[in-house]
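INFO  loader      accepted 1 record
INFO  loader      residues=184
INFO  predictor   begin
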Amino acid sequence: MASVDVLFVGYADDRVAGTVSCVRDEDLVAIVDPGMVPGRSAILEPLKVLGLEAADVTDVILSHHHPDHTINVALFENARVHDTWAIYEGDVWTDRSADGAELSPSVRLMATPGHTAQDISTLVQTDDGLVAMTHLWWDASSETDPLAEDLEGLHANRAKVLEIASLIIPGHGAPFASDPAAPR
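INFO  predictor   done
INFO  writer      dumping tokens
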């Protein structure tokens, strides 16, 4: 079964950093949203604690294209990069919709527009339930998204994620247990 480790817990207040996660399943070693952090060591040191180096990362998944979620992609030079439209590997751009894309037996992507029209969530089946890494929430307390391009879509996609996930890892905060009664 797959595992999910949060490498860095993000924040959005007087400074901005994205939450960065590592997903492992069979041969897949994926980093989700390697964006803005205080320094590269905030990503690389926790990765080392897991027994991994940047060169071991096979895939990078971008929830959307804002710099606070993308700026450190180049740390993982051997990785394929996934976004809503395509897979990028070296100089090869392969078009495909992320919605429903399976990266391994326990890891798939889901289109979840709202914050931006191009948002995707990473869904990982673990022994403890389904984990969703998503920017549908900034953090556990975010009732809405003041920067959402499609607030109605954001709330509809929150409801979908709340129905299937047991743990949510938001774009700028610590993981929290899914609660179907939570703000949608």
